[in-house]
Specification:
By secondary structure, the chain is an alpha/beta fold. Helices cover 58% and strands 14% of the residues. Bound molecules: adenosine-5'-diphosphate.
Length: 826
């Protein structure tokens, strides 16, 4: 489009003057086409330009017209050529050009009318020699006037359209000049007016011609049919002169049609030109090319001015909004407390806010030439690859598993700082931008390291606690073994008096109590260190409840209270669950109920609710104050409402945790003075299979009188050896003793025992090693070896079986347990 405009400017002058020459000339030619036939009419027209009487006037008039116009438009043309050459035409020049434009319609219309009237005058003078008709002269005068106006309007619109680009320049820019006669409505009105006027006078001229034709050429005194009001067209076919005349008429009408079209085309251009300007400007604004000014040049006073103004206002508001939001964004980024960095796909840094300057120690200007990678501590191999292709860096940062990435930044001073950052990617006018908001995590990393250390030391402490407990358990059980063992042996002595027996029973009860206490402490410690394991077995639920009742019935009777067991609906017989823990829970809850009830009784309710079994222990005891219900579930916590004879406050804590482990919840409701209800519901899987039959514990395998069985007792503690020795010999075993593992190996060879009871912790050689060596021999494979252990931990049990032992006997030894394992394993 630009090139077209430029070309237009070059030929502007030529186009204007060609138009202002040929347009009037052709109009003179065609309006003068008069005559009885086409030839004559055409000759008449042409004669004006050839006839020696009229030609000099016509030509000189035409040249004069162009010369005047040239003189008039000269400043405008100079202005234009200066604009093209990029010289500033100057304000004065602009003002003169504006004036010329403002007076252009008056000037062109005037010279055109004057020209045509001059032509008419000359023609009239020339005609006076031949003929004189005042009516015809008057019509000719009006005809020339209308033709002059018509031609002038045509020339004016054409010139203005051709000069439109120049006009835009003149009436825009910094100096806004007022424009006259620029209303499109007026131009439209003028056009319509001159067309109608021109047509009207052409018609009059036609009528006068036809009248004259009628007067001159009436055949046989008959007037032309036109005046008879008959069918003119029909008659004209029969009347040759009329026919010829009509031909000329139609040719002229045809030619006029082209003029009208031309005139309308000028009108079209008049509207199209400013519309195109708006379109061109809007296209420019929509494009990214910066050479377009962001405003539409306003050409004052025409109907488009308002539209241009509104569009400009819109552009201005949009631009202001854009600038404002850019400013806002900049302010946010500049004032952000966290460093913000944006970088291009090639790694070049694009945004580096003041917080980033502070963090890295670089000034904004210093980093703009740098690559993002130079600020980050990445493996050397990646750094090298990035120098060739930055895509490697992008890939490196995108391959982090978490969106929040941790990096080590390198400051200007070479200091390394850990930071955390989220890298986001977006498409912008500047291409793909990666933005990162950096968070200093030095404090956090320090905190995390401290936390790790604390965790390690806590784990260490926990391990040490477990070891301590294991050792303590061993140390406490060993003397207890002697106490309980000897009291058991003594209680079977027939020579003792009743008083001695009572004392021995007291020692035994106290020892049992102490053992229970140790077991409770060990249980709670195991729960707290997460070492308690679930051990599911199939058991007979009915039998379990009957056993419980049997266990407590005697105690209830002695305390003078009742004990009821009730079933709510049918309960399954065989179920799968951790029998050991359930027994411990029930013993503790029923034990407490019995312990804290002096009147009334205790009832146990068992019921089934889809997939779960509900146990509820109800008593009519002293009750627990409401505010203490939560408290008593904590270890070592006891209610203030009851006397605690020897209680530790551990039972409920263990019970509660065991119920939770079995996926249940302990519920307590209690009223002081009326009693308490402890209930829980646990899922117990129903089993179709019956439990594996347990051999009756405590069955004494008397082998007295039968074949004597040889047993080797290995323990470094003489008391332990003595208890076991007495227990075994009482039922007919032949025993031999060894003090440590090594001695045990030697004694085995010479004594060839059927059973060995071996302690684990011993000097010289421990039990694990000794049993391994014994079981390695052919003789040893036939011997049943039991471990004597005071350990409380399950993992020790596993180690015992893995080392080759056939079973174990927990310390302190109980006769029942001893006979059970012997009978089970031999
Ligand atoms: P211990 O019985 O060894 O004191 P527990 O943890 O079994 O320890 O019980 C904690 C405390 O809760 C008891 O000391 C007692 O004050 C209260 N308590 C438990 N069961 C009952 C009950 N059935 N009636 C009244 N008080 C109870």
């Amino acid at each position: 489009m630009g090139r077209k405009r430029h070309k237009n400017k070059k030929f502007l002058m030529g186009r204007i003057f060609t138009m202002t020459f040929f347009l009037p000339a052709s109009i003179i030619l065609f309006t003068s086409m008069e005559g009885p036939d086409m030839d004559q009419a055409f000759h008449n027209g042409l004669n004006l330009f050839r006839d020696p009487t009229s030609a000099p006037y016509i030509w000189s008039l035409l040249f004069l017209l162009n010369f005047c116009l040239y003189l008039y438009l000269k400043p405008v043309l100079i202005f234009n050529s200066r604009c093209i050459k990029k010289n500033s035409p100057g304000e004065k020049m602009q003002k003169i050009a504006a004036k010329k434009f403002n007076n252009l319609p008056v000037f062109i219309l005037s010279i055109s009318v004057i020209g045509f009237l001059l032509g008419f005058t000359i023609e009239a003078i020339l005609k006076t020699h031949t003929e004189f008709n005042s009516v015809s002269l008057f019509w000719d005068f009006l005809d020339s006037l209308s033709t002059g106006l018509f031609t002038g309007t045509l020339m004016y619109l054409n010139t203005e359209n051709l000069l439109f680009p120049v006009k835009t320049k003149v009436f825009s820019g910094d100096t806004i000049l007022e424009q006259k006669y620029s209303s499109y409505y007026r131009k439209l009105f003028l056009t319509m007016f001159v067309i109608v006027l021109f047509l009207l006078f052409q018609m009059f001229s036609y009528f006068s011609s036809i009248y004259l034709l009628g007067a001159d050429k009436a055949i046989g005194g008959v007037k032309p049919p036109l005046f008879d009001g008959g069918d003119f067209l029909n008659m004209s076919r029969e009347n040759d002169p009329v026919k010829e005349f009509m031909k000329v008429f139609f040719v002229r009408v045809f030619i006029y049609f082209f003029y009208f079209m031309h005139l309308l085309r000028q009108l079209k251009h008049m509207i199209k030109n400013p519309l195109e300007t708006v379109q061109e400007k809007l296209e420019g604004l929509n494009s990214d090319e910066p050479q377009f000014s962001k405003q539409i040049d306003i050409v004052n006073n025409d109907e488009f001015t308002q539209i241009y103004g509104e569009i400009n206002k819109l552009i201005e508001t949009q631009q202001r909004n854009l600038e404002r939001s850019e400013e806002q964004l900049e302010t946010i980024v500049d004032n952000a407390a966290d460093p913000i960095i944006s970088f291009h796909e090639d790694g070049k840094i694009h945004v580096f806010n003041p917080a980033a300057e502070k963090f890295f120690g670089y000034k904004k200007e210093e980093v703009f030439e740098k690559q993002m990678i130079s600020l980050i501590d990445v493996p050397e191999a990646i750094k090298k690859q990035c120098q060739i292709d930055n895509g490697v860096f992008i890939e490196y940062i995108s391959n982090f598993e978490t969106p929040l990435k941790r990096f080590t930044g390198i400051t200007k001073r070479g200091e390394k700082i850990n930071f955390e950052s989220n890298i986001s990617q977006c498409e912008t006018d500047h291409g793909t931008l990666f933005t990162t908001i950096i968070r200093d995590i030095r404090g956090q990393i320090e905190f995390e390291e401290n936390l790790k250390k604390a965790k390690n030391s806590a784990e260490n402490a926990n391990r040490m606690k477990s070891e301590f407990l294991a050792n303590m358990s061993h140390e406490l059980r060993t003397p207890l073994n002697a106490v309980l063992g000897f009291t058991q042996l003594l209680s079977t002595d027939k020579n003792l008096t009743q008083g001695q027996l009572d004392k021995i029973n007291t020692i035994s009860r106290s020892g049992e109590h102490l053992l229970a206490l140790i077991n409770d402490i060990l249980d709670i410690s195991k729960i707290e260190s997460g070492k308690t394991e679930m051990r599911d077995t199939i058991f007979d639920l009915n039998q379990f409840i009957t056993d419980l009742k049997e266990m407590f019935i005697l105690k209830c009777q002695t305390r003078g209270i009742s004990l009821y067991v009730e079933y709510a609906g049918e309960i399954p017989r065989y179920v799968k669950g951790d029998l050991g823990k359930l027994r411990q829970i029930m013993i503790n809850l029923i034990g407490n109920a019995v312990k804290f009830t002096n009147e009334g009784g205790v009832s146990l309710l068992v019921g089934r609710e889809d997939g779960t079994v509900r146990f509820s222990i109800n008593d009519t005891g002293k009750g627990i104050p409401e505010e203490e219900i939560e408290k008593i579930l904590q270890p070592f916590m006891q209610s203030s409402n009851v006397d605690h004879e020897g209680g530790t406050g551990l039972g409920l804590a263990i019970t509660n945790r065991f119920i939770e482990m079995m996926k249940g919840k302990l519920e307590i409701s209690s009223e002081v003075g009326r009693g308490s209800t402890f209930s829980f519901e646990i899922p117990l899987e129903i089993s179709e299979e019956a439990p594996v039959e347990e051999k009756n514990p405590g069955t004494v395998i008397s082998i007295k009188g039968g074949k004597a069985v040889k047993a080797l007792i290995v323990d470094d503690k003489v008391n332990n050896r003595l208890i076991l020795k007495t227990m075994l010999e009482n039922v007919g075993f032949i025993t031999m003793e060894a003090e440590n593992g090594l001695e045990a190996i030697e004694r085995t060879k010479e004594f060839d025992p059927a059973i060995i009871f071996m302690d684990i912790k011993m000097p010289v050689m421990d039990g694990y090693e000794s049993v391994r060596q014994i079981k390695d021999t052919a003789q040893g494979k036939k011997i049943v070896v039991f471990a004597l252990t005071a350990s409380a931990f399950k993992h020790d049990e596993k180690k015992i079986f893995d080392s080759g032992f056939d079973g174990f006997l927990p310390k302190p030894f109980k006769l029942g347990s001893l006979f059970r394992i012997v009978s089970e394993n031999t």
